[in-house]
Fold:
Amino acid sequence: MKQDTDLRIIELGLILPPAPKPVGVYKPVLIVDKFLYVSGQVPFLADGTMMKGKLGADMDTAAGKMAARQVGLTMLSTIKAHFGELKKIKRIVKTLGMVNCTPEFDSHPAVINGFSELMSEVFGEDNGVGVRSAVGTMLPMNIVVEVEAMFELY
Amino acid sequence: MKQDTDLRIIELGLILPPAPKPVGVYKPVLIVDKFLYVSGQVPFLADGTMMKGKLGADMDTAAGKMAARQVGLTMLSTIKAHFGELKKIKRIVKTLGMVNCTPEFDSHPAVINGFSELMSEVFGEDNGVGVRSAVGTMLPMNIVVEVEAMFELY
Amino acid sequence: MKQDTDLRIIELGLILPPAPKPVGVYKPVLIVDKFLYVSGQVPFLADGTMMKGKLGADMDTAAGKMAARQVGLTMLSTIKAHFGELKKIKRIVKTLGMVNCTPEFDSHPAVINGFSELMSEVFGEDNGVGVRSAVGTMLPMNIVVEVEAMFELY
Structure:
């Protein structure tokens, strides 16, 4: 049975930030066959502010996890703006979560769980959970976390 | 001709470590159509110990390569535990190898070869070799190396 | 209408560097169904020299962007050498751009645009632009930038 994900977002009381404009030569989303690919998304708040910080330096794991959740909300907003109805999405397939951090930081999975738990809430415990890697990188403009993902469509 | 990969592992005398439990909100493996996606795997020894260290600091390339081989054995164990028979796998398609290292370390491909040579031994010189990137990142809990991969099924 | 990309490269006056040999256990390109996967490519000049440097330390964004363009030319050369006619490629689907940089560097997207603008010139404004992530990593042998990509075939 298909879930009405757009309705589900309303039921959960989620507020999507405005879909960000691309800051380079890429498409925000691309559909090929029955897969939807999303460019690396970064955390925006509902007022359009981008969340900045570095885990292990000026931000703790709880704040990083909240930023990763905002990445998820930003991604849903991007998909709605460029693809349309979220109910056409069947499941999340693959996530690459990249955390802006110091070499000493060691809780990347806990941070990226902020993104993954949102996807599970929105798409369900089976379809909302896919494969994942969570690693530490250096991100543009001191962004807290960046996530790219691939979804399967109905 | 299909290869019996489960038999091949016995012939090679390989000992698979226990399949690790997920440490976050993700599936260890996910099958979509005829592809098997594996979450980022890390190096476990046969006794369940996780291998830690940083290339360029407290670990040399030979030890890093051995850790990457253990990532491969851990990945095979994960696939067996969550998917079943390895003989349903036709080939490895894509590998992203991420090495925990200092900025000065420069032998990431040699480290990731530990994973890739194992895949070649197990799945054969054609089907066991796919495309690959090998880069340096910062990894959770000082894990030596993390590898994610995609396989094609028969 | 299919574009003759091999002719387009001549029209644009692009000079492809020699296709590099693999420096590890991987295939430069792999075709699965109607997709072409390319291993992480690095910047070579037409004379076969590899471009080295670290953004934020000894190289500025303009030079990094030029290196990313050379990665694109190297990738086209790799595809020609191992797959043949570029006109069999329909579009670029996905790019992962990895910049060798200091933790303070903040213009990864501007660097990777060097790669993405070339793809747009070669394959066109629609088919030459896909989804993308651009992040900072640590790269082998102090290489400036590494890019892996997936293309869809006709």
User: Anything to note?
Assistant: Chain C has one domain: 5-15+31-153.
